[in-house]
Amino acid sequence: MSKRRERPGETVISVTSAQPGRSEDLDSRIIRYAAMMALRVACFVLAVFTPSPWRWLFVVGAVFLPYFAVVLANVAKTATQDGGTPYVAPERPSLEASPGPVIRVEPDEEPVRRTDTEK
After folding, report:
1. Which three-class secondary structure state does DSSP give residue 32?
2. Of 70, 66, 73, which Cα lies nearest the Cα of 41?
3. Distances in Å between the alpha carbon of 16 and those of 3, 6, 22, 80?
4. For FRET with 119, which of 12, 63, 70, 108 sits at 20 to 30 Å CA-CA?
5. What's the half-sphere exposure (Cβ side, CA atoms, 13 Å) at 41?
6. How many CB atoms lie within 10 A of CB 93?
7. pTM (2 decimals)?
8. Alpha carbon of 41 to those of 25, 50, 58, 98: distances in Å?
């Protein structure tokens, strides 16, 4: 097995600041929504079995929890880590223009055209 050795001055690019995958984000949203709906079911059950002052609190909770469940389920997670520094490519050497003589040629006024029959 080969082990990677870090060379001095080598830049390592990190991908830990990447957003979570779409399926991972969707799974967490489903779990949050299901938890809120379970709490709503508990509010309905408790509204049936509790005395009057608490009953109305559980009814209000059962009525308004779907709104909060949808809002909280649609909140996307964002990366909390710093984005890091972007990769900057090292400067590459360029070719230098060498000065040299410039030869200018004047075109003929009208070129002589020969046909195949002329020699």
Report:
1. helix
2. 66
3. 21, 19, 16, 10
4. 108
5. 6
6. 5
7. 0.49
8. 25, 14, 10, 82
